[in-house]
Amino acid sequence: MSQNPSAPHALEQSLTQQLGDMQQQLDSLHGQLMESQRLATIGTIAAVIAHEFNNLLTPIVSYCQYALQTAQGPTPDMELIVKALTKSFQSADKAGRICQSMLGLARGQSVFGSVSVQKLVDETLLVMARDPKKDAIALRVQVQPDLTVFGDPVQLEQVLLNLMINARHAMLGKGGSLTIKASRCDGTDEVKLQVIDSGPGIAEKHLPRIFEPFFTTKGTTRKGEAKGTGLGLAICKEIVEHHKGRIEVASEVGKGTTFSIYLPAEQ
Ligand SMILES: Nc1ncnc2c1ncn2[C@@H]1O[C@H](COP(=O)(O)OP(=O)(O)O)[C@@H](O)[C@H]1O
Ligand SMILES: [Mg+2]
Hints:
binds adenosine-5'-diphosphate; Heat Shock Protein 90; alpha+beta; five-stranded mixed beta sheet; two-stranded antiparallel sheet
């Protein structure tokens, strides 16, 4: 039996060639996808920085004004000046730290260390400028003592802050309860952090989309209230995953919403 050895060989060669080309295309597309995801993250982070800065600049400006006014007046009150400058210095310092840590996140490099969960919660509550009681929201904090996680404290504070702001927003006008819980998960090396509200809940059709950048249901501007950016939960997810953790949501319409974050405990 005679055979033409070159025919199947040529076919094989051409198939290999095609496969190689396709793989190259796939690699290039994958690279483009990664790049656009990275850019989307940086865009998100830039928007978050702008948002957080806006919050921090307001007290800086007013305290500086305050200090200038008394300094230029007939009887400068040194005590007041020092107090106002201290406050604005603290805010400016915080703005700097947020900027650094968010840029670290964009570059994929952050300063990780041991973070006390109690301290994290306390600091976040301090940053939440408005007292929840003013909005008829009862605040409960249940944090297991001596709980620590390994992470970037500034980034983790952003996560908690965004969740608390969402919870407060959900309960505006009606009031309710906001619970912050933290405990070590039994039998695992994980810490569970929860932000629980008794707000209106999230419609089932929205649930799969809430972590998408720019997804928001806060389209209409209520009086004195900013429109939603849809960036809060996207940044939360980005940060939690950067910490090798995960974020989950459970919500029941008319009952409330629970966000749970699982983070590796400090060894
Ligand atoms: N605690 C909550 N209760 C009800 N809905 C929520 C809650 N948290 C988030 N959501 C929903 O998820 C959407 C996305 O949230 P987020 O990414 O923080 O963006 P934004 O707050 O700017 O709308 C919100 O618009 C809202 O529909
Ligand atoms: Mg939000």
